[in-house]
């Protein structure tokens, strides 16, 4: 894990080895502007705890994430926006440190574009899936 942290760009930003446009910082959380934005005000909110995927981060290190996202929404004046958090290459994660995007969606051309490939199913399949997941909660 230490070697992954040593090479992690977000861990380097947290340590101050790489500069960022810091918007918020506490002992557990850092928010900064994305340097490859999809729209004006696109920012990242990250836990300082290094973990590749959401399930790797202890709950108490996630407690400030959404409140900080809300502060960014207010500070940017975004009225329409997406909150995005990807886990794994197949899900479009490029940096192996949990991060949440706050992406303003000012118009059709800027911001996040989404494909939503809805799948056909039926109530019996949904009920079986519900029971399977509910039993594991």
Note down, in words, how this protein is organized.
The chain has 137 residues and is of the alpha+beta class. It has one domain (2-136): 2-Layer Sandwich (HIT family, subunit A). Helices cover 28% and strands 17% of the residues. It has helices spanning 2-7, 9-15, 65-76, 123-136, and strands at 22-25, 29-33, 43-47, 81-84, 100-104. A five-stranded antiparallel beta sheet has the order 1-2-3-5-4, with helices on one face. A hairpin with a 3-residue loop joins β1 and β2. The protein starts with a helix and ends with a helix. The model has no long low-confidence stretch (mean pLDDT 95). A motif (Histidine triad motif) lies at residues 97-101. It comes from Podospora appendiculata. Residues 9-112 form the HIT domain. Keywords: Hydrolase, Magnesium, Nucleotide-binding. The active site is at 99 (tele-amp-histidine intermediate).
How is the secondary structure organized here?
Blueprint: H1 2-7, H2 9-15, E1 22-25, E2 29-33, E3 43-47, H3 65-76, E4 81-84, E5 100-104, H4 123-136
Antiparallel strand pairs: 1-2, 2-3, 3-5, 4-5
